[in-house]
Amino acid sequence: MATPHNEALKEDIAKTVIMPGDPLRAKYIAENFLDDYKLVNQVRGMYAYTGYYKGKKVTVMAHGMGNPSIGIYSYELYKEYDVDEIIRIGSAGATSEKIPLRSIILVEKSYSKSNFAKIQNNEEKVILNSSTSLNNKIKEASKKFNIKILNSVVYCTDVFYNETEDPNVLYKDYGCTCVEMESFALFHMANVLNKKAACILTISDNLITKEELPSIQRQNSFNDMIKLALESILIK
Fold first, then answer.
1. Is residue 48 part of a domain?
2. Across-strand partners of 58?
3. What is the Cα–Cα distance from 182 to 166, expressed in whole angstroms?
4. pTM value?
5. Domain count along the chain
6. Ordered mean pLDDT values, 10 residues apiece, the chain (236 residues)
7. Active-site amino acid positions
8. 229 vs 40, 89, 94, 126, CA distance in Å?
9. CATH number of the domain to which 193 belongs
């Protein structure tokens, strides 16, 4: 089986998929964390690798940037490849000076003004929940490895260079600790298709203080987030 965006055979894709935005981060995860992995998709350069983490079969596939992009890939993985659960891992910009760089956010709710859900199936919700069961596994992994996480609401925007949203308002009025661009569409597709989705984010920059991590520090800091996602899939 293949789709216009994924050349993998159905048996090439695991039931659990870890999804970073960047195709090169998918490659990094496969090379540094997986055993016996193989490249199963490279259509449009959106790499997908399937291998084993401590004996557990898992696929790592990039999703690109923004709700429309992750909406395509998550829909096809859930519907055409019978994937049960997707864990997005990505970066985010903090909306308060109280949230330091490298903080790890576990997204419990995604708030968005996006029309994605409205257009996709006439859904009117602006806040969507992640999977409680997946979140509980991630929390258990965080305790096991003493990795601190912040359970939070995040703001999912359609616009990266946004000149209308005030980060202070997002934090104080809506409780959003950070801004990213994909969780809303992922959670929506999971809800539509009765699947599971979670999202773990690492704070790479702060929209208030203007601090940001250099590229090499982003890579090293993201390892804790990657480990959390992978370790969570081992928990029954």
1. yes
2. 51
3. 19
4. 0.97
5. 1
6. 91 98 95 98 97 98 98 98 98 96 97 96 96 98 97 96 92 96 98 98 96 78 93 96
7. 205
8. 20, 8, 21, 26
9. 3.40.50.1580
